[in-house]
Specification:
Elements: H1 2-6, E1 16-22, E2 27-34, H2 36-45, E3 49-52, E4 57-60, E5 69-76, E6 83-89, E7 104-107, E8 112-115, H3 123-126
Parallel strand pairs: 1-6
Antiparallel strand pairs: 1-2, 3-4, 5-6, 7-8
Length: 127
């Protein structure tokens, strides 16, 4: 397992970006950052752990909502600079209630964001 971690390039803050991708929906859910500890816990438990930069701490995805991400595969890019983590998402990844955090698209003609997905849950019912 040590050779796996040695093949990765964590930045000067000890972080590596990780794209979280739902294997069933074939959709990018979010982008997060992981420390080595977060990645170790992810691989040990089979549930995505990440490093919350805004709070300066390790957490499990879905910690408050229970909407966990079950890991199917961990794939580094060709240079070991980032990860693609293929998951099975339980309920939704986005804390504002959408399956994916990428639920908006820019509408250039009307110069505004357009919602392109349905809301899966109401955050006030979960948090």
């Amino acid at each position: 397992m040590e050779s796996f971690f040695e093949s990765l390039n964590f930045n000067e803050n000890g972080l590596i970006p990780a794209i979280i991708f739902d294997g069933d929906a074939r959709e990018v859910l979010t982008l997060c950052y992981m420390t080595r500890e977060a990645l170790e816990k992810t691989m040990e438990t089979g549930k995505v752990h990440l490093f919350r930069r805004s709070r300066g701490r390790l957490m499990i995805k879905g910690e408050k909502s229970g909407h966990v991400q079950l890991v199917r595969e961990v794939r580094p890019d060709c240079a070991g600079n980032s990860l693609l983590i293929v998951v099975e998402q339980k309920v939704a990844a986005c804390h504002v209630g959408y399956f994916s955090c990428y639920y908006r698209a820019w509408d250039a003609e009307n110069e505004r964001w357009r919602i392109v997905s349905e809301q899966v849950f109401r955050p006030e019912e979960v948090y």
